[in-house]
């Protein structure tokens, strides 16, 4: 299943997407949470995407239709939206809204999520 809109396709991640998805996560985390110290190195984050999230979890990516660049990543785990990160220069274009709508469609029984307390942009987005 994939969803297209605004030149960006939402689709299930495949093994080849792991590096790009981790890169989005790293850039987004650094931009949104500059004061939060990550407990994992960049290499550990890359490995987690490669060995756990993409092959074992329901991981979705937002891919630009024209150049196939991955600009967003969402991970669903049971009834939890456990990850939603966008490349910093792709925020504000409706991709996060599309990911949340997809998550609600895929989990009609409801979803839970959490954000870092210092992540004011995420608080505004989810409220």
Q: What would the keywords be for this entry?
A:
127 residues, alpha+beta, five-stranded antiparallel sheet, 5 strands
Description:
The protein is of the alpha+beta class. The chain has helices spanning 18-32, 42-56, 95-106, 120-126; strands at 2-5, 8-12, 58-64, 70-77, 80-86. Strands 1-2-3-4-5 form a 5-stranded antiparallel sheet, with helices on both faces. The longest helix is centred in the N-terminal third of the chain and has 15 residues, at 18-32. The chain starts with a strand and ends with a helix. The relative contact order is 0.19.
Brief characterization of the structure:
With 127 residues, the chain is α+β, with helices and mostly antiparallel strands. It has helices at residues 18-32, 42-56, 95-106, 120-126, and strands at residues 2-5, 8-12, 58-64, 70-77, 80-86. It has a five-stranded antiparallel β-sheet, with helices on both faces.
